[in-house]
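Pilot study result, target chain (489 residues):
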Amino acid sequence: MSPPPPVPAPKRAKILVVDDDPIVLKAVTSILVREGYQVVSIDDAVEGLTAAKDPSIDVAVLDIKMPNLSGMDLLRGIKAVRPDVEVIMMTAFATVETAVEAVKAGAYDYLTKPFENIDEVSMTVAKAAERKSLRDRARALEEALSARNQFEELIGQSAQMRAVFKLVETVSHSTATVLIQGESGTGKELVARAIHYRSARKDKPFVAVNCSALTDTLLESELFGHVKGSFTGATSNKKGLFEAADGGTIFLDEIGDVPPATQVRLLRVLQEGEVKRVGANEPVKVDVRVIAATHVDLSRAKEQGKFREDLFYRLNVITIDLPPLRDRPEDVPLLTHHFLKVYTAKVGKRVTGFTPRALEALTCNRWTGNVRELENVIERAVVLTSKEVLDTDDLPPGFQEAPQAGAQVEVFSLAHLPYAQAKRLAMRAFERRYLTALLEKHTHNVSSAARAAGVDRSNFRRLLKQYEVAGRTMKRSKDDDDDTLDAAS
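Predicted structure:
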């Protein structure tokens, strides 16, 4: 079985425009082409319905009053064959009734002709395209999450995690001892469970024990059991976890914290396949597969005399190294979607995804606490938000000052990322800071700022939307023909 497929990168939206008025059709097409969209222009509603079946169409802009087939009927027809397409209706006969009817039929938004501001067209289409993109992204992540079910709760699409999946698949069918190494929070127990539940022992017990959470005496008693009277408090005979796991798998988490005396007893289990309860004389045979895990370097601990060399080699038959989350940032979107799904269901809220800059902020974070820390951040955001799409202000305070939110980018903060991704994030942060500073310098006058930047005004507006500068929207100045930014929005 192959690991989950990669999630595709977002594409530039393709727009279908249908209007029987050639002047309006040409004008809307020109506006959208100038904004960089692929545009399909059709002057007949029946032909428009056929064109809408093209799976590459993301947004449809439709006139309501058309011969042969009305815009409302075309809207219903498109939604019947392509319910994922976002539809924007245009009409010169705007009424509350038609607006309500269009929305009920599945329209995303409504434009009135003649357009008072051409930017209204491009901005409405941009919002619809972004909504379609977010839904496509969520669906792709959902498909990737469904594909990963074969590896239980292990989630990832990076090369590192694909290598882990392949190794899990291979070692599951053996009985060899496995040593899982990785930082705290990387999912070592999930790997152990995946190995167990894909093995011939899957119908037998899986027993997990945290070796660092117990005192020396309690740890031996828990692992090997004890007989009545062997120590103070031993009021009856008790089976240990090795006996409880007979026929199955025992997972020894934080094996590096096991004291020397217990290491000797563990070695006997691995060598002889038997345990001796504390205070007992006779050993008990057990058939248990051992999977151990640690966040410390056992090889170094061995060299320092803190871990038995013979036990190390008994445990280190097959090693699985789990990469920290900061070394596989491409897995962050998949993990965030998974945790979003988990906690929206748990809390009972409708939260559908993340804004691009929120996802960038999450991807760029170093995640010293690894997947466990990411899970906590998403749970917090879901509990506290009142929005349907999470943004940077829904994340903990540190994320709101992240590079992609407009703050200064330090090279060190990106050093954990692959070069290409670090460069892309740094460039995005620079361009957002530059655009914000330029607009402030020119009192949010778009035309003036575009001239100062040496960029065509339409391209400059597209940059503003792309980088979500200050979350502001554009309107036409009443004093001259220049565009300004509405600070009230």
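One observation from the pilot: Residues 411-467 form one domain. A full batch analysis is planned for the follow-on phase.
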